[in-house]
Amino acid sequence: MADVSASDLDRRGAVLPDQAAAFRATRVAEPWQRYDSIVIGEGAATLSKGWYNTWNDFANASQLGWFMGRDSNVGKSYCNQLSDRSDWAQDLITANVEFIAPTGLSEFFDNPLDASVTPFLFTQQLPTELPMSLKMSEADEVLVVPANHIPSGFALQGSVVDGSPGPVTVPGSQGTPHVTNNFIFAEPILLAAKSLLTVSARLDAQSQRTFSGLPGPGAMNIPIGGGLFLRQPLWYKIKFTFFGPRYLQMRGARTSA
User: Fold this and answer.
1) Secondary structure (3-state) at 119
2) Is 26 inside any structural domain?
3) Do the Cβ atoms of 27 and 249 come closer than 8 Å?
4) Dihedral of the CA atoms 64, 67, 70, 75 (nearest 10)?
5) Interval 60-87: pLDDT, tens
6) Which residue of 22, 64, 90, 171 shows the fewest CB atoms closer than 10 Å?
7) Residue 106: how many other CB atoms lie within 10 Å
8) 184 burial class (0-12, 13-18, 19+ CB within 10 angstroms)?
9) What is the count of structural domains for the chain?
């Protein structure tokens, strides 16, 4: 059977329902996650477009974007789709958003806010005031919700600043950490190969004022012995993930036999 053609797609790039089953029957389905991250922290902007060195740059960006393309040196823990289009069809079934703040011994943080209030603002307030828009083909808006409506089934629950003599900052994430705790689309989005799917956001007024005025993010000075320290910039991350099978042409058997 021939590959899907332009006449088999709707105007968004999704496979039409009466064509999807026939096309997918000619492919091999495998579980897949499509994810991308925005990073805020010292040095981030030099690694990729759409990343930010300071809270002020992040808060005043005209648009925050996911799945709009990253630079090639971005690691796979942040993004597995450097282009704004994928090479395969996929059924998008669920989605989640993680707000990941750095953890560590607060006595080694050079910005005291990173050891106290900033992780709370980032993981608890910001998700309620960061409306996210999911668009297909740059125009068809299929979802608009605050980020906390797209819960994360991963990460720690809640934020903790331990009051011991050497307090430890353990930021959590929004939502209860359970694998089933994700946003579920009413019907799967049957995405064709090479279709454009993007997520964008912009801080609402309250959080924009707050984060515009925050210094940093700073760094953690890790003691490595002999009175020496390793300075590690603290990176805050917002990771968006889609879940659902992708469809590939038949490949060789995955076995050593």
Assistant:
1) helix
2) no
3) yes
4) 110
5) 999 999 999 899 889 999 999 888 888 8
6) 22
7) 18
8) exposed
9) 1
**Cβ proximity of 164 and 170 under 8 Å:** no
Place of tokens 């003599």: 165
Residue 172's domain spans which residues?
Answer: 33-248
Tokens 């648009």 locate to: 63
117-127 residue pLDDT tens: 898 899 889 99
Q: Tell me, yes or no, if the pTM score tops 0.85.
A: no
Contacts of 241 (CB under 8 A, 6+ apart): 33, 34, 35, 95, 96, 97, 98
End-to-end CA separation in angstroms for the chain: 30
Residue 167 lies in a domain: yes
Spatial separation of the C-alpha atoms in residues 238 and 191, rounded to whole Å: 23
Each residue's pLDDT tens digit, 102-145: 887 778 888 889 888 898 899 889 999 999 999 987 778 889 99
37 domain-assigned: yes
* Residue 164 token pair: 């011991």
For the chain, how long is the longest CA-to-CA vector? 68
Picking from 197, 105, 120, the residue whose alpha carbon sits closest to that of residue 158 is: 120
Type of residue at 51: W
Is 2 contained in some domain? Answer: no
